[in-house]
Design brief:
alpha/beta, Quinone Oxidoreductase, Chain A, domain 1, Rossmann fold, 7-stranded mixed β-sheet, 6-stranded parallel β-sheet, 15 strands, 23% helix, 25% strand, globular, disordered C terminus
Length: 349
């Protein structure tokens, strides 16, 4: 037991903007033993999420910043190795906030849930059947309130959250428009995620393409970027539009605050609504949402992509890669063999 080594990715220095590889270090530590009420988990997949930028920032946001020298906060899915809790048993697969490390000792009550019983890959518990899928589900349906026939526009439309938003909007009978960066992602939006239209924000004809895609204006805007993309969408809001603020990926730093067009006139004249969303407000209701998401994945109404990096040494630079748009779909780091059979029908990369 004590021969095993626990590789941990720790926060070495605090970034002022997007965290880079040099802000982290990989340290070897002994594998701890669980105490009463605790569980030892061997992590298999680590999650990489845009929100991690806020978690390591010196400016506190909705969560306490990760301390310098601490293991990087992260969702993970892994296998129970040892348990001193009657709720979990060795060999079960579980997900929770286990951190960027090989092994985690956690209190049993902090484990989010057991996974793997559905026959779908355990990796989905970190993406389409995890925080990303739940974010898409609650943010779109509760705040966006899409109605059949309305036009729903999604930024970072090929990403882990955006791709799910677009497909849920289709399930609800909406016309969907995806905004993505580059021809490959635009093609994936149309062909795999079945957006009615997809536009490339990097292209010279972005503004005219957005006009052509939204001839009746925008009823729901699911905003993952802020910045110039959102400024363009704002000008096209329809009367009574709803804006869901889910992320601000295009803004490198909020100190000093970026200058940009003001939103108030658009909201006033179009009687539009703009509301922020955090998944933590909705966790109590996640079991029902997960059941519905799982059924949509099974019947092919929701497709998903995974961008899997191999080896814990990929972790330090993985957040910066997200912000450069390197990933197509949910970014994960695989640090141990995935021993459950991977499901044949979702699109994997």
């Amino acid at each position: 037991m004590h021969q095993r080594v626990n590789r941990q990715v720790r926060l070495k220095s605090r970034p002022s903007g997007i965290p880079q590889a040099e802000h982290f270090e990989i340290v070897e530590a002994p594998v701890p033993d669980p105490s009463n009420g605790q569980v030892l988990v061997r992590n298999i997949y680590l999650s990489v999420d845009p929100a991690m930028r806020g978690w390591v920032s010196a400016v506190a946001n909705y969560s306490e910043p990760v301390a310098l020298g601490a293991v990087m906060r992260s969702l993970a899915v892994g296998r129970v190795e040892e348990s001193r809790s009657s709720d979990f048993h060795p060999g079960e697969y579980v997900t929770g906030m286990f951190g960027w490390q090989d092994y985690a000792v956690v209190d049993a009550e902090t484990i989010e849930r057991e996974v793997g019983g559905s026959g779908l890959p355990i990796s989905t518990s970190l993406g389409v059947l995890g925080l990303n899928g739940l974010t898409a589900y609650f943010a779109l349906l509760e705040i966006g309130q899409p109605k059949a026939g309305e036009t729903v526009v999604v930024s970072t439309a090929a990403g882990a959250v955006g791709s799910c938003v677009g497909q849920i909007a289709k399930i609800k009978g909406c016309r969907t428009v995806g905004i993505a960066g580059g021809p490959d992602k635009v093609r994936v939006c149309r062909e795999e995620f079945r957006y009615d239209s997809a536009v490339d924000y990097r292209a010279d004809d972005f503004e005219s393409a957005l006009d052509a895609a939204c001839p009746e204006g925008v009823d729901v805007y699911f905003d993952n970027t802020a910045g110039p993309i959102s400024d363009s969408v704002m000008r096209r809001l329809a009367v009574g539009a709803r804006m869901v603020i889910c992320g601000t990926a295009s803004i490198a730093s909020w100190d000093p605050p970026p200058q940009g067009p003001r939103v108030e006139r658009h909201l006033l004249v179009k009687r539009a609504r703009m509301q922020g969303f955090l998944i933590f407000d909705h966790v109590q209701r996640s079991p029902d949402a997960l059941r519905e998401l799982e059924s949509w994945v099974r019947n092919g109404q929701i497709r998903y992509r995974e961008d899997i990096l191999d080896g814990i040494e990929q972790a330090p630079g993985s957040i910066a890669g997200l912000y450069r748009g390197e990933n197509l779909g949910k970014r994960l780091i695989r640090i141990a063999p995935d021993v459950l059979p991977r499901d044949p029908f979702p699109t994997q990369t």
